[in-house]
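In response to a reviewer's request, we include the raw inputs and outputs for one of the modeled complexes. The two entities were modeled together in a single run.
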Amino acid sequence: MSDRQQTYAKVVELIAPFNKKSVAITEATRFAQDLEWDSLTVLDFVATIEDEFDVLISMNMQAEIETVGQLIDALGRLKSQ
Amino acid sequence: MTDLFSKFDPIIAQREALLESGVTDPFNLVMEKVESPTVAICNGQRTILLGTYNYMGMTFDPDVIAAGKTALDEFGSGTTGSRVLNGTYVGHRAVEQALKDFYAMDHAMVFSTGYQANLGVISTIAGKDDYIVLDIDSHASIYDGCALGNAQIVPFRHNDIEALEKRLKRIPEGAGKLVVLEGVYSMLGDVAPLKDMVAVSKATGAMVLVDEAHSMGFIGERGRGVAEAQGVIDDVDFIIGTFSKSVGTVGGFCVSNHPKFEILRLVCRPYVFTASLPPSVVATAATSIRKLMDSADKRAHLWENSKRLHSGLKQLGFTLGTGEPQSAIIAVIMPDLETGAAMWEALLMEGLYVNLARPPATPAGMTLLRCSLCALHTEDQVGEILGMFAAAGRATNCIS
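The model returned the following structure tokens for the whole complex.
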């Protein structure tokens, strides 16, 4: 598996406990519209991602991340820094 | 053509649905007469006020009123100018001196509102490439201060020391860091673990700003707030506060020991580009702040009120925001907005005003009946308040 595939698999795994509506996850899945997450859920999920990948995702960055695919891209950039 | 107002349709619909149920509009109350810090006339009825921020009951203090009247006579109704141009009178300097004495700090800067104090200080001191780490339940003025600036914003779970520390440690080496905390969080009335949070922040080289809006005058031996009560006030870089709560008028401020603090007067836009407070307001504020220094007896009585209301409401079967009373705010958690509005109206009919608080002001989507006590509520009034809660709670089936 490529780095990106590995990151994707991990992110999908971490989404699962927050995916109350059992929405099928793809790279195009949108956090707000498709998963219907509120701000508190977003906070908890971001904290989970931050702890797993040991990165910091500021609210400024979160504003640019609408889909699962965009999160994978952002994690790729953060890890290469 | 797109109607710019269509984005408000969901909230318009929610509001209409609520009012169609026949309930009194909880966000449209008018006080026809105000008799004292604890009693007003609403809809022709004598109403006990349990939803103001008049914690220390200073609004009708005779010395405070007299100072305001004198200033009105001697300096007129307003300054019509910015603090940095024609808007600084002796009274503005005097209230800043009162704040320096109250907090025993080197610098004090007065803004036209508490909202502007947060907006101005946060947006100005944290610039591009700096990081602001803040509690997720921070007040709107803190978030708006973040939005006005260019810093990277990193929220952490409410009052979670470990979550704060983890985030601080992940900030890139060499970046400027500002940690923003509140002494008392105004929705649930809970207090921050400032002792640990300030220590953790300082260990990573961050500067710390604490908003003590809801604790000034009441919490801490000299009423300096939660940072004083927890023994960390000397490690706090900036304290933000307001005149619109315990001080009993309107205005905001920041106090600090930072040696370069005064430069903010020239670079802080929400300080520069607005009119300064009217002379009567700064005169009442200065008088009130000096009186708050020696108000230990009132502080003790307010604690008694808070404890009694908390235990009384718990006994009646209400669910409260905190297990123990931590401030002058006691939040009663309602199951939903409809029940909350019905209970709010029933209390108003009984002759009691409390705040109905709902999202987005509240955490976790909660509807709250927020009670804030005053040092001038008498023992009898607290008893009366509990009786009203019992009656209204049973009438709306909130309690059995």
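As requested, we also summarize the result in words. Chain B is about 40% helix and 20% strand. The first helix of chain B runs from residue 9 to 20.
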